[in-house]
Amino acid sequence: MRVLVVGGAGYIGSHVARELLDRGHSVTVFDNLSSGCRENLFPEAAFVRGDILDPAAVRAVVQPGLDALVHLAALKAAGESMRAPETYALNNISGTINLLNAASEAGVRIVVFSSSAAVYGEPRYVPVDEKHPLEPSNFYGHTKVAIEQLLGWYDRLKGMRFAALRYFNAAGYDPRGRIRGLERNPANLLPILMEVALGKRPSLEIFGDDYDTPDGTCIRDYIHVTDLADAHVRALEHLVGGNGSLAINLGSGAGVSVREMLESARAVTGRPIPAAVGPRRSGDPARLVASSVEARRVLGWEARRSGAESLLETTWRQYARGSG
After folding, report:
1. What gap in Å lies between CA 287 and CA 259, rounded to an integer?
2. Looking at 140, 167, 173, 319, which residue is catalytic?
3. Which of 149, 196, 296, 308 has its CA 20 to 30 A from that of 109?
4. Interhelix angle 258-269/189-197, nearest 10 degrees
5. pLDDT tens digits, one per residue of 199-248
6. Domains in the chain, start-ordered, CATH in brackets?
7. 140 included as an active-site residue
């Protein structure tokens, strides 16, 4: 297949591009490099620098003959989205409209979209399945819901089939070490743990330890980014095989608490990793764990590399190398 990976120089996008190349597909990466890294580009893939907010640039790269596009270009900081909704509406929603319109003009009828568990908001029950109400608690999550709705209309009106992949907490790195670029200004737990281990941050702040969980800290569902990449390719193949559109969860189905991840990180890195408990963050649920039964049933997919040790070992290897 000829596949355009939009946002393919980013953390998840580069792993998706690598998985597609490993399976023999032809890949073009389209990225503005605002958060993506040149180190994450591969010589086997074509690269076009451009922005989804530039309709002409999008039309120039979304050409007839493409079999599919994978859309991973989005601003993703939930807290920032509440302070700057205009920026998130413009980039995430308007940028996606540019992509979908260009795809419609070019006759590209298959889209795999990087959605998020943020579409669910505060969970009414766990594990969260696809029947859970879509009630985002931040504007970032709202943009993902809006894009899923747009995709539904383009499917209905333009015959553009899609897979919206609602994933939980992406973590880890390519086990073979082929993706070298580290996330810039990370806000997620594992990169922060690595930066504390390396002395780049003084300590980890644990946001509350009085939740209704075994050790009082929040429990989250972590999924290895290589498992995510595999799911993207499976979703593409599902759609190319003539199957209908779908929206599915991707998670490990198991939860790990902040304190458990901290202790595992200390063991993997051999570093003390100082930590201090701070106040809760507004809107943080005690538990957020996915049901991935539907992904297993429809795509034959499961999280194979998403244990805490695998997540931490592949991340630490990358961060330790980057500091050397």
Report:
1. 13
2. 140
3. 296
4. 40
5. 999 999 999 999 999 999 999 999 999 999 999 999 999 999 999 999 99
6. 2-171+223-250 (3.40.50.720), 189-220+253-322 (3.90.25.10)
7. yes
